[in-house]
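Exercise 7. Predict the structure of Solute carrier organic anion transporter family member from Ataeniobius toweri.
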Amino acid sequence: MPVLLNADGSFSSRQELLDLQDCPFNGGPSLDTPSPVDSQTGSPIGSGPRSPGGPGPDGLSGALIFTRASMLPGQLYGEGNQPDTEVPLELTPKSSNSDQLCGWGALKPKVIQVFNTPRWVLFFLCVASFLQGMIVNGFINTVVTSIERRFDLPSYQAGLIASSYDIAACICLAFVSYFGGTGHKPRWLGWGVFIMALGSVVFALPHFTAPPYLVSLQEQIGMCSANSTSLCQNKEGGGLSSYRFVFMLGQFLHGIGATPLYTLGVTYLDENVSSNYGPVYIGIFYTAAVVGPAAGYLLGGYFLNIYTETHLTTEMTPEHPHWVGAWWIGFLAGGAAALLVAFPILGYPQKLPGSQEHVPRRVSEAHQLKDGSHTTASDPQFGKSVKDMPRSVLLLLKNPTFLFLCLAGATEATLIAGMSTFGPKFLESQFSLSASEAATMF
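Solution. The predicted structure, encoded as tokens:
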């Protein structure tokens, strides 16, 4: 209901209200009777078709009904020739949100705001997931036999190197998804991709710190005796097995960096697009993640046709049992590309412009349980402290759909992980294929 103010900003008696109704300025309807225009439109007072200062149905030049924000204390009713500013009740003007601009800290140029859309976010996240699949699920699996031969590693140590990724992801997954879910997701994603790039550089580091791999055809004739000479030790990479810890560190960094990508990345896309387009965006994102390993196998097989010491020439061919390809090139290239992708991801805001329009349309059904757990989960303060983490885990364990999806994913990973890691090596040893051919065929 609009409120009429007199000169001192308040009413002294009900009689004064009645006197104002009968004053010559008010030739319109009474206070208790809504105006015909407002009753027809059903809109807040002041938002009808009549504009301030325009002629009304009474022939007056100004609007006769004002909100509390239209007059200040000290102004008489109808006083002044300036048009009155009318603000609908319960509505506040929108202010420019600088925290939704794309940029890095105080640097937010207008020229890059064209990238501040969900489509460009999807593009950069797809590139990041493509690189993750290419490096971790592609290059790693193709170079297993090469690093075993180059650094004198048994198969169980090579399997431990490959498993370091999953160990790191298992350790960091709960904490990253829990605290990153309420934090600045693009920063978590950007720094994760940066750590993944660092892991690729660390993984390729043994090639530059280890002695050159030099094997001549004459040295390979015959078997080394029990008390082998230094020449045989150098040929077999004696003392280089300690580099397995460097490979494990690189894989550990891969696991830490890729953890936010498939948890917070999917959430960030889902929050900033409508519910109709959410599945399309997420489907494209996972498609890029699936194409990445395929590209990793093909590129890895191509790089293995190049001798590991690129600045030297050798008489060996890729079919020779002592051949070691340039396994490190893919990791340097993938790490450099991931570093370039991390920079634009770090510049995105916590919420994209227009994301508020999608919030009222979403109804969460994750905690609609009979015990009232959804009431606890809907509390705005719930989840901001580490003390709420056990309660959050308990709520998830009560969700049967979530549990069965987790079991399905674990079963798939169990079947694929071992086969993808040692599949190329099996083809290479069983069918006398080169490492490049085995990787390409697999």
